[in-house]
């Protein structure tokens, strides 16, 4: 039976059909959907991005888009990619390509009209599936359909050749296994990754970090992560993420109890301490927000236990924030070996429901109580705030003002 994506919601969408009509109008049979949208549809997964491969050269893509009234942006013109926007929906439209030369990080390409040549420069067989204007799926590699149906991640052609074209494919091999594999990792793929692991040193740190986050966002990446450990891919690309016992425990908790997955929590679980987090952030050029989150998740100034009272929970959330609190609860739970699941789960639930209030006191009110403008205002406010926190955040303005008067008098 011929595979098809014709009934997929994204395929039938008006924007998709309008783009297809514009490209087909310029060259009949010259445009096919490719990659993730086709793969995920066949595997029953959500489709996020819709990519199109075409025999049209970039200038003809722009011309066809303009004729249809669509905006066209040369977002990757050096590789033949034009982003066409149809009714606010972006599509990446890329001219069929073949590699002229590669250096393990980037490729010099030439345009082609051959679907087979375009397929051969892709990484895995399941990613080289094309769907034509009728929705019929084409499989130039000869194994992509079977791989998608079986949940196998196999390189196109010779695995060593594919990896030498771009060493990021080592990490992509494990990332795609984390997301799509339903069985053991392909032995030939693992062997090629192991033999060429030194090529990871050529990659930009930004590409490594992007792949790491995608891999750790998979529902259960344990088999893929173990494969990376076994052939030293993890040690080479992500040496800071060495605390595998806690990471394994966290992923087991998430899988067994169907808890929400957060890649950054998993990264924190694999780090030893705050200095490891800062080291990772410097080396892989994390954003300030990512760095701060990891550092906060690994802090120890607030003790997190399964038996902490709701009052202590509220104090902790107020001091470190709800996100850091959740991260620390998950890390503490994993560190405890997964015991007392009901208590930890209740702690997470209460933490999600409670929103930290704002201290009902202003600097103007402090000065109105007789405190002179300057550093003393901050000192008094912090003193009152400590009392307010210790009293479990009373929503009582009068009590706060009375406490302010007492503190102000004591500091006079």
Please, could you describe this protein's structure?
- The protein has helices at residues 9-12, 14-26, 36-42, 58-67, 115-120, 144-150, 159-165, 168-180, 187-195, 205-216, 222-230, 233-237, 244-257, 263-270, 274-284, 288-297, 310-320, 322-335, 341-353, 363-368, 375-390, 397-411; strands at 31-34, 51-54, 71-76, 81-86, 89-95, 97-102, 107-111, 130-131, 137-138.
- It is of the alpha+beta class and 412 residues long.
- The protein folds into four domains: 1-150, Beta Polymerase, domain 2, CATH 3.30.460.10; 157-238, cca-adding enzyme, domain 2; 298-353, no CATH class; 363-411, no CATH class.
- The strands form two sheets. The protein has a seven-stranded mixed β-sheet with strand order 3-4-5-2-1-8-9. It has a two-stranded antiparallel sheet with strand order 6-7.
- α2 crosses α4, α15 runs antiparallel to α16 (288-297) and α17 (310-320) packs across α18.
- It is elongated and about 85 Å long.
- The model has no long low-confidence stretch (mean pLDDT 95).
Keywords:
412 residues, alpha+beta, Beta Polymerase, domain 2, cca-adding enzyme, domain 2, 9 strands
